[in-house]
Design a protein that fits this description.
Blueprint: E1 8-10, E2 13-15, E3 22-26, H1 34-46, E4 51-55, H2 59-71, E5 76-79, H3 84-92, E6 97-100, H4 108-121, E7 125-130, H5 136-142, H6 147-163, E8 169-174, H7 178-191, E9 196-198, H8 206-222, E10 228-230, H9 237-250, E11 259-262, H10 273-284, E12 292-296, H11 302-305, E13 311-315, E14 319-324, E15 327-333, H12 337-347
Parallel strand pairs: 3-4, 3-10, 4-5, 5-6, 6-7, 7-8, 8-9, 9-10, 11-12, 12-13
Antiparallel strand pairs: 1-2, 13-14, 14-15
Helix pairs in contact: 1-2, 2-3, 3-4, 5-6, 6-7, 7-8, 8-9
Length: 348
């Protein structure tokens, strides 16, 4: 059961309540380079990114926000640390959300300036708690990065905004240790109705990062926790979007694009199933149809085992059977099996 949180509008994308769990990524371009940043965002838009974040380390990057915003079609989030003036400049230039920690950007008057502009322009603020930047007093109090320390840090930042009567807030509590991350999100979700941006920070490279993120994010989604998400990977940001949709699809939360099922191979396999499955998976990324595709290694059991698939292939000795809903429709040679399968998928 989804845990209901207050609704927050991020540049037209609403999160919380019963709204879909929005999928985010972050540019790895130099934000000052407007052309490169816009090109990357457009590429991410085209594969389903719903909210995009950029790093804003200085005023030059903040000034670029205006031109970036004019050229994209999804909400833009500014990631800001320490300097409240950068937050003000980003909001003036049309950013849709700012990611800051109120306790790190100066005294109360400076925080108040940011809050007043955010109120005036209906711009949400994301409080981003990270295990790598916890306050020393909390580290000393709890003896390290613990779930309790992370939640207390989040609450301290929230209290600053609450005291200024600002409640248009999103929270993330990220740490690379998955059990600690899970514990922190669970604890916070029990005590607050603020929508949560979930993810595992510094999760790793494409393979290890997807495993970590799938375990952490998937566990939270299974418990109804999470209102927006990012799969953080040391990889091209497009991989974050593909992974995010896959996680939500596996959890039954999204139906976007084709779902691939394939068998693990065994001694009965007589075709190069691993190569074929990899190629089918690659080509399916460009298919925007809500279908299930099966790639099976055994011509005897394949069609039956994958009867729930809309379409699929099962291999034999140098040949493949193409089937729909478990019914064989034709036989093709192994070297043409992927091309013929894709033709059938395009005709659906």
């Amino acid at each position: 059961m989804r845990k209901k949180k207050r609704v927050v509008d991020i540049g037209g994308v609403k999160i919380g309540g019963d709204y879909p769990i929005a999928i985010q990524s972050m540019c790895n371009t130099n934000t000052r380079n407007v052309k490169a940043t816009v090109e990357q965002i457009i590429e991410l838009e085209n594969i389903g990114c719903e909210i995009i974040r950029v790093a804003v380390p200085d005023m030059e990057a903040a000034e670029a926000i205006s031109d970036i915003k004019k050229s994209i079609h999804i909400p833009l989030v500014a990631d800001i640390h320490f300097d409240y003036r950068i937050a003000l400049e980003c909001m003036k230039n049309g950013v849709d959300k700012v990611r800051i920690n109120p306790g790190n950007i100066g005294d109360r008057e400076r925080v108040k300036e940011v809050v007043e502009m955010a109120k005036e322009r209906s711009i949400p603020i994301r409080i981003g708690v990270n295990g790598g930047s916890l306050d020393k007093k909390l580290l000393n109090k709890y003896g390290g990065v613990t779930a309790e320390a992370l939640v207390e840090s989040a609450m301290e930042h929230i209290e600053i905004l609450d005291s200024l009567n600002f409640h248009n807030t999103v929270v993330s509590i990220k740490v690379s240790n998955v059990p600690v991350m899970l514990d922190a999100y669970r604890k916070f979700s029990e005590i607050s109705d603020i929508p949560l941006h979930i993810g595992v920070t510094e999760s790793g490279t494409l393979n290890s990062g997807i495993i970590k993120s799938s375990v952490g994010i998937g566990a939270l989604l299974a418990e109804g926790i999470g209102d927006t998400m990012r799969v953080s990977l040391t990889a091209n940001p497009t991989e974050e979007i593909y992974a995010a949709y896959s996680i939500q699809q596996v959890m039954g939360l999204r139906k976007k694009g084709a779902e691939l099922v394939s068998c693990p191979t065994c001694g009965r396999t007589q075709i190069d199933l691993i190569k074929i499955a990899d190629e089918v998976e690659k080509r399916l990324r460009n298919i925007n149809k809500n279908i299930k595709v099966a790639v099976m290694g055994c011509a005897v059991n394949g069609p039956g085992e994958a009867r729930e698939a809309d379409i699929g292939i099962a291999g034999g000795n140098g040949v493949g059977l193409i089937f729909k809903h478990g019914e064989i429709i034709r036989k093709v040679s192994e070297d043409k099996i992927v091309d013929e399968l894709m033709k059938e998928i395009e005709a659906i």
